[in-house]
Amino acid sequence: MSRAKGNLGEEKAKDFLLSLNFFIIESNFYSKFGEIDIIATKDNVLHFIEVKSGLSYEDAIQNITPVKLSRLIKTGYVYIKKNSLDTDYVYDAVIVTANNIDFLENITI
Questions:
Q1: Residue 98: what pLDDT?
Q2: What is the signed CA dihedral for 23, 104, 6, 20, rounded to 10 degrees?
Q3: pLDDT class for 1, splitting at 50, 70, 90?
Q4: In the chain, what are the domains?
Q5: What predicted TM-score, i.e. pTM, was given to this entire model?
Q6: Dihedral of CA 80/73/21/45: which sign?
Q7: Does position 4 have pLDDT exceeding 60, yes or no?
Q8: Is 68 helix (H, G, I), strand (E, B) or coil?
Q9: Distant-in-sequence, close-in-space partners of 51: CB < 8 Å, separation ≥ 6
């Protein structure tokens, strides 16, 4: 997928999260392990959010591989350490398709 399409998916995801009363802290946080698309908070919980876009739900969700998930987790740890945070946190995904947006909570279980 092109970066432009990825950016569009991330913007749709941000708007969707805002409608669910999330507060967006940061976008596109990078570490040597990878990237977190969106970092947000809601109800005193920090959410590290991976955004995947595709023509269908299946196309998008298949891109959250074990390797991708491992990189997301490591990058989350970097963010927590870098910012000296002591808070509850969770790893989520937002799946963006042409007709729908789905929020998948706690994708590490």
A1: 87
A2: -30
A3: very low
A4: 3-104 (3.40.1350.10)
A5: 0.92
A6: negative
A7: no
A8: helix
A9: 6, 9, 10, 13, 37, 38, 93, 94, 96
